[in-house]
Inverse folding.
DNA sequence: TTTTATTTTCAATAATACTTGAAAGTTTAG
DNA sequence: CTAAACTTTCAAGTATTATTGAAAATAAAA
């Protein structure tokens, strides 16, 4: 396969995966484009490569910055802004985990905590079932939360760093 | 908080979380409803509880069956079909992991394998960067794939079952 | 200060994804 | 076989989300 074709396929695939995981397709494609670009690109270049509008490119690049996946760069003597992706895939995975934890897991934990205060009669099957599910999910979510923290800190504990090595 | 209010909040929260993860909101809500129902429910009951149409209820219940999250039941002497969720949250997590692996991770691995056959000159920075990203993602994805397999099998190895216990 | 290059915003539009409901299909009972 | 109970399908409609593009804002240069 030719490089040009490979690039197209990579951008397309990354976009598809992103949208399957609730991430805007264009955002994933811009990220893909920057991941395979040896040089930082301008908004203009991103617009051209992916055939998207200026507004879309601008917003998408900002979102990627907020996700901590790319950064703005300035070239001396130039006025334009350049954008470059963090090429370390492990950092990308960590960053995504961190953000989703913050944006989704943590709000969910808050709701679950609230829901576990619902009182009721243990002999009421409706209450018992509700309570069991909420409690179990709460437990699992808390463990997931702690586990993500541990893996984000990583290298500290011998045990977890050995797990990480296998994964990474 | 009253049980009735708790139920509403739980269904709403589960729906929101689902949609953040690329799962249809209604599907997540039906799942939530069945998770907290002590008895199996009919299509009719699901329609009423969530104010959704017959067509929607039917399709959503089928999807949940395909995800392996709920099952059809029949009561003796009755013609209607009843639906009940697997209440073991750990099973739910496993099932979701298994399905997403099959639906998303595996197709991605196929594309990455193809993309790693792209040939080029190592001195060409465009090629080198493309190749590094693809190779790194490929490696990470393969490890994730293997790790999921291991965790799904679980109990077999002493090491992993100890990891699971912490998580579970 | 004025001009020019560049970035940002956001109302309007387009694309996508979800839902409805009625008709067609199936299955069981009489 | 026929009717009744129930399930499935899918074209049309609705809601949600993403994208455009031109105008406004900002910032550097003249």
């Amino acid at each position: 396969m030719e490089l040009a074709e490979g690039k197209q396929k990579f951008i397309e695939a990354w976009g598809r995966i992103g949208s399957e995981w609730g991430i805007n397709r264009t955002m994933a494609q811009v990220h893909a484009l920057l991941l395979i670009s040896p040089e930082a690109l301008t908004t203009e270049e991103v617009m051209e490569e992916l055939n998207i509008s200026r507004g879309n490119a601008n917003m998408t690049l900002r979102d990627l910055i907020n996700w901590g996946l790319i950064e703005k760069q300035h070239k001396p003597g130039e006025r334009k802004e350049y954008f470059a992706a963090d090429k370390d895939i492990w950092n990308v995975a960590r960053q995504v985990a961190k953000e989703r934890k913050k944006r989704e897991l943590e709000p969910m934990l808050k709701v679950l905590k609230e829901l576990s205060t619902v009182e009721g009669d243990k002999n009421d099957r409706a209450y018992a079932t509700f309570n069991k599910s909420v409690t179990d999910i709460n437990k699992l979510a808390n463990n997931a939360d702690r586990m993500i923290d541990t893996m984000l800190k990583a290298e500290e504990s011998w045990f977890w760093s050995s797990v990480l090595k296998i994964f990474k």
Summary: The longest helix of chain B spans residues 125-153. The beta strands of chain B are 41-42, 70-74, 81-85. The CA atoms of residues 111 and 138 of chain B lie 9 Å apart. Chain B touches chain A through 55 residues (CB under 8 Å).
